[in-house]
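On clarity, I found the account of how folds are encoded harder to follow than it need be. What matters is that the chain and its backbone geometry are given together, residue for residue. The format is easy to grasp once an entry is in front of the reader. For illustration, here is how one protein appears when written out as sequence plus structure tokens.
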Amino acid sequence: MVRTGNLRKIFRNQFDEIMNFAKEENFDVNFDYKRHHFEIISDQQSIAKIFLPIDQTVGQNYSLKEKEDFFLPICVIKAGQAFLCLFHNSELIDHKVFRAYMVRKKQGKSQVKHLKTKGKSRLGSRIRLSETERFFLEINKRLNSYNEHPIERWALSCSKTLFPLLFDSEIPPPFDSKSKSIYKIPFHIAEAKFEIYEELYKQLCSFHLSVNENANDIFEPFIEKNQKLDSDDW
């Protein structure tokens, strides 16, 4: 399941209305390339963010245009399971699920977290660490195979605990840890499994609005206009 949390899906007409309203009110609007969102600022305070469809590019005067010949790799990493896929212009052209024995029985804690708290490594621990090394090696091999395509962004969901391990692998990924090409997926993904690929891609290619709680009254009228379309328009 893909949960958007406090991000609310909006439609293109709502996006246009909000951006026009921000201009009329003389709000500052900044574009964050790495997070691929517009931030709306009033009196030096952030009041809203609009996450843009990942398949849209931003031009002059904040105009949007759909990308042509667009490749999007998606990588979701959980402790013991990862899901990779590659889309080309909304068509799934490759996918792979990886699994590894990384979670200690009963405790349900990954070996990485266990060693940080306990510091000792017995046979079971060494096996899990070996599985962890193999896990990230295979992930990075697959990611590097995608690099034969012209890829601008890499959509990635990975916890802070596991993120460094992706780059400590014998074979590194085709991007560095601070690269602007990494697009950190702003949704909560419960499991790294193949069944979520379609929903996740559609979410990534949609507009989402995040509003500061102090600015709800400002943006609610724009949301209410399309209230009936908000839930099942996939």
